[in-house]
């Protein structure tokens, strides 16, 4: 089973790298979807099948599709030249150094954690559901309100009123 | 009773607080009601207090009300405390009564002004400060009132602030009186250093016990206090601010620069008369300054063409009379003249205000004329005021008060013939210029037409003051004419009586002489300004006329002596090295601004990068510690 | 049963997170920046699942559900804002939107 984890991890990292270095927006988004699918496999391996399903349905299936819709609406894929101009190779150096430093920090921080390998049980989705609606009930309600706020916000922010100027003022 | 006494200055101050905090948000009627009402309440309270006071005069001469301790540091104690005696009572009566009439007049005079509420706020503050000045029992609280009236004078002279000339006049008034105020505070310092108390009564007692007559320290202190009085009362050499102070509205000129603030100097000298008696040199100086000022101002008043400037110089001249009286030891005569002068001078200023308002801001008397038939009520009251000013014999209050001063100028132990001569010449000049004013303004042909009829709120106060200018003198009739001494009896509880030297000539001789001189002056004015105006033409064009008109060149003198050198010094000092410190600070701040502004370039990725670097550094630091 | 050490699992999540961070700092197109933010969200959620599986509690998965909800709402509103930006500035360049800069 471990080998599957390493394969899925490699796929995830590779496709994420392709996503952030891509020039074509649609290609990048598709690579990102691939990365999300790989992470979903990792979730399944971590005894969380319900979450794996959720990841595919919501993250890859809804959010990324939203991204693709907007990209297609704004016709970004056609602007290959600007992307080339904006993403010069030299710009990767400093963020990579930063990320490397942070990664080193993470590795150093992880040295102290113990590796517990006790007997594993699957955490059933039923348990998750019961926990959601008993311990975290308030958070669920708030999340629902937030979703409603998001709907209203997205509606208002997305609407465009055509600016009407009098024909005498148009010039 | 104590509560009533302490309410008298408190109520106008409350009125000031209310009006200044309310700003322009209260309706005009309410602002006017509060503004005039507070002074009215103070007036009624003053009447009640006066009634009780006079009734109990045989066993209490001074009422002391201590409210709370203001400053208590080491051995310096100054309380918020009022002491009521007959001197302060007279002043309180004049301030509240004349002040109330002027406030009622202002309700109509300022009715169309946009700063209506502000005006009444300042006027209330003024009345409150002046009452504190005359009612306080220690010199420090009196100085507080002194400064307060100076501030209100500045605020009210420059009331129409949109014209920069008014601001200049206000600043001039403030700065010139400041010179006097500084001298006065030095005098208070010396008094405190010597006697360790600020209470006026205690100081006077201690001074009389410890200082011999003619001691240099007494002379110095008295001279410093005199400096303060000179500044506030616009006497020589600090008289230059009063004619320019006419830039303010007429009610301001009436209240502050005729009836009350300019008489604060008279109050000070009367209050500290013990000190002046201990310094004969200064006391003589008071009389001489008074005499010189009244002549100087009289000549200047004769040549002015602005109606209010004539009245301003007339005020300077009449206060010169009060100083003359104080200088010869006739304390109650000075206060009597103060009261009568308040009546007729306020009347004259209010009447001038009506004329100026009705003639659309026309100030030049040579462009007025013929108002006798067009504005009869104003004419009659103005005539009453001018007659009282000229001391028209027997029928006006001014005759009795001015006559008393002239008699004492000659017959007092400290008086002399020269002072009397100055006074009588001054009386001639007074008659001349006041009737010149009457004849040119009210007679002849009308050069400007009145635009409306003045209303009751302006005419009623003016009429009341006119009646008082006539009958107000009957409380003090000289021995030869009726021997009524109500006024001086009241004041004898506080002020020492006049020391008379027997010089042989009886009183009625002087009275007849002054009556003749006054009538001659009126007749002369009639001839020169009404019958044959061309007789004064050559005089009007002469250099002497211009010299008198410019106030005897004092403005030019001070300009050359003080203003020019200071301006020249500051010009050459413009680029001195101490600026480096100030400019350096500003330069450093600007440098940092230029540097730091580069970090706020509005670019999202710049901010993200700085965030990431920051987080990296912090995490690395925390992990490697 | 998965016996990969927890450190490696978290290291995976960390690598994904930092890749997202690099993408956020480097890319100039706003859509790409938002996409990198999504990568970071995802990796944060991964850490929660790892933790939940390690301690065998449902709380990790519950937290992931909430993170998912937040990410969804954030993407929706973010994209709506990007639409408005595009219509106003006619470009998707993040550097072109510097109207809040400090002018000397």
Structure characteristics:
heterotrimer; A: 171 residues; mainly alpha; Four Helix Bundle (Hemerythrin (Met), subunit A); 2 domains; 7 helices; 73% helix; extended; B: 625 residues; two-stranded antiparallel sheet; two-stranded antiparallel ribbon; 4 strands; globular
Task: Give a verbal description of the structure.
The complex is a heterotrimer of chains A (171), B (625) and C (104). Chain A has helices at 2-21, 25-45, 49-74, 80-86, 93-110, 125-134, 137-158. Chain A is mainly alpha-helical and 171 residues long. Among the domains of chain B are: 280-540, no CATH class; 549-574; 578-623, no CATH class. Chain B has 27 helices and 4 strands. Chain B has helices at 2-22, 28-55, 86-109, 116-135, 139-157, 164-195, 200-210, 216-233, 241-244, 250-259, 264-271, 273-277, 280-303, 307-327, 331-358, 371-374, 376-390, 397-411, 417-442, 456-471, 486-491, 507-531, 537-540, 543-549, 554-572, 579-597, 604-623; strands at 63-73, 76-84, 476-477, 484-485. A two-stranded antiparallel sheet of chain B has the order 1-2. Chain B has a two-stranded antiparallel sheet with strand order 3-4. In chain B, a hairpin with a 6-residue loop joins β3 and β4. The model of chain B has no long low-confidence stretch (mean pLDDT 88). Chain C is an all-alpha fold and 104 residues long. Chain C has a domain at 29-91: Orthogonal Bundle (Helix Hairpins), CATH 1.10.287. Chains A and B meet through α5 of A and α27 of B.
Describe the global form of chain C.
Answer: elongated
Overall structural class of chain A, as computed from helix and strand content, comes to mainly alpha
* Name of the CATH architecture of the largest domain in chain A: Up-down Bundle
Average of pLDDT of chain C: 90
The stretches of 5 or more residues of chain A where confidence is low (pLDDT under 50) are none
